[in-house]
Each structure stands twice: as structure tokens, then as C-alpha cells.
Amino acid sequence: MQIVAVETSVVSLPFDMGGPYTAFAGVPWTHMQILLVRVETADGYVGWGEAFGHVAIPVTKAALEGVVAPLVIGRSSGDIASLSASILHAVHLLGRNGAYVYAYSGIEIALWDIAAQRASVPLHRYLGGDGTRTRLPAYASLLNYGTPELVAKNTAAAAALGYRHFKLHETTTDTVDAAITAANGGAIMLDVNCAWSVDRSCEMADRLLDRHMMWLEEPVWPPEDCAGLARVRARGIPISAGENVAGNFGFEALIAAKALDYAQPSVTKIGGIGEMLRVIDTCKRHGVKVAPHSPYFGPGLIATMHICAALIADPLVEILWLDMEANPFDPWVRIADGHVQLPPGPGLGCVPDPAVIERYRVGTKCRITK
């Protein structure tokens, strides 16, 4: 059935991060912004997706409205794989990673939502899950605080809410030690967001090895330095990476270089659910664990939950550690006792609250039709 409309809107949700606000790509980060993508088909189905952005949302939104959405209008919603191949090839000269792929990711997630709705099953069942896993463990993805005191405070607060896994966004051993103490036996991961050279990463991996962390995430700049990342992994600490990878072939390169213990594809960045499935299949064939990247609070997070329930052997859902004033997808984006609960309905299983969207919308809603 034909795609007849694509609609975009952005909500901006105030939040408390448990410490002083920081900058994201040089921009003060005081609100969680979500770029929502609504797709309609000729037979009346509506699906919801999310396109990655944060402070780059204006760029992703422009790519979606100006180029990507017009390419899908009038196309069949049924064969998602063929549509993805066509659209991503059409925009490949504009970048194999970045705004145009992010934009299509939002549409693609919405199409999977529609496909599962048509089948009258939740997305995790449509993806092949047996339906038994509807409550999944989550880990608290703490933000950057810069001091051991704030790291300890927020780690302890997350532990009090039932989390047993904690990811830091820090770059020093004293903050890691503070989290280890506050976690009271919980597992610690460290994401440094590509902060170090290969030599510095190797040095830090040696210093961190006796902390017995679950993983060290993206230590090396630039992130596509597979050989450099493999050198760090050889020091003995488990390595995670992948949120910046361009598609399944990027993960194959990391695996071939023996650079990876945990693959971290991001559904709102990589091209959507179909590409996530290819990455998961590749990782299964090579014995690499998958821990999807999901620091968002809309359809991208909910789609990730469904993927984890259906296809990940030992699922662990990433939840950003912040307290939002409101969210159009409450309560499904909240944790309880360290776990997330899948929505029960067909497709993604839930729809956003229109009153919350209207209250927190920024900019103009855009509707693209033929």
C-alpha cells in the first residue's frame, strides 16, 4: 500500500541531569529534543519513527523534508528492504552516514511499525520473538559530570531505582572508582566518546584493566580506526563501539579487525530496523555480542526495546539517566526496578500523547504529500 504522507515535528522536553548542564557539540544542552516522524499509508495506517539529531535536529529535519520524504511519497510501504536499498542509494552521494541516513531511519522505523500493525502483532513478535520477553533489564547511561562526587551521587541514585548496570561518560580513573564504590557490586561501563589517541587509549586500558569493567566504549579517535581499536582491545579490556558506524559493512570491518566485543548499532542513525537486523545477524555469525545504542526517548527507544526482546540473547537496554518534565511516550520510556516494559499493542505498541506534543512542540510541523 502506498505511502501518502510524511509528517515531522520536534518536541523539546526540559530535563534534570543530576548535575550542571553541559554542552553538546558546543551548544548548551538543557532540553531533550526528539524529531518525530509520522508516516501514513493509503489504507489508513499510521506509523511513528524517530530520526537522530540532538543539536543537529534542524539539519536532519531539513534533509528529511527537503530530500528524503519526497522520495518515499507514492512508494509501496510493503517491501521495506527494497525501499531502503532504493532510497539510501539515491542519497549515497550526500553521505553514507549522517543527516540523510538519520532522516531515512525515522521513516523506516515508522514503516516497520505499520507492517507489524497490519499483521496485528507487537513488533517484537513480527521480528520473530516468541513473545515471552516483554520486560527487559536496562542500564543507566549517566551523563558527563566531571567530578567523582557527582558521579558517585548519580550512580547511587540509579542503584536506588533498581539499576544494576551503569555507564559513565567520563575520562578519568577517579570517576570510575567513585562509580564502582557507589554501584555496590553493579557492573560499570565507560564511554569516553572517542576522546583519546590509540597510544593514550592503550595506556588507559592498562590502567582500567584491574577495575573489571564490563566494557570500554569508543576510546579511539577517529572512531573508524579499526586497527587502532584492535590494538586497544588486545590490552585485555572488552571494547564496545558502533554508534558511528555506517551500516553493516562498517561492523564487518570492525569484526574483521578483531576490534569488537560488543557491537552498538543505533536504530535512529544506521538506517532503521532492517539494517539493525543485518548487523545482529553478522554479529551472531562471528560471536560478537550486541548492545544497541539507544540514548533517546521516543520511537527509536521503543523500537530498540522490541529488537532486544526479539533478537538479543542477553538484552540490556540503554536508558539515559535524566528526569524529563514530560514525554509523549510515557510510561513506556520510563524504567521500574531497573527494567523497561514493552507496550502491549500491535506495531510499536503505543502512540504519542498529542497533548504533550502540542505543549512541547518547537518550530513548525511539516507535512509532505504528493
What does this protein look like?
The chain has 370 residues and is α/β, with parallel strands linked by helices. The protein has helices spanning 57-72, 80-90, 99-118, 123-126, 148-160, 173-183, 198-208, 226-233, 247-256, 273-286, 299-311, 354-360; strands at 3-16, 23-24, 27-28, 31-41, 46-51, 135-141, 165-168, 187-191, 215-217, 239-241, 262-263, 289-290, 317-320, 323-324, 339-341, 361-369. Strands 6, 7, 8, 9, 10, 11, 12, 13 and 15 form a nine-stranded mixed β-sheet that branches. Strands 1, 4, 5, 14 and 16 form a five-stranded antiparallel β-sheet that branches. Strands 2-3 form a two-stranded antiparallel sheet. Helix 1 crosses helix 3 and helix 10 packs parallel to helix 11. The protein is globular. The relative contact order is 0.17.
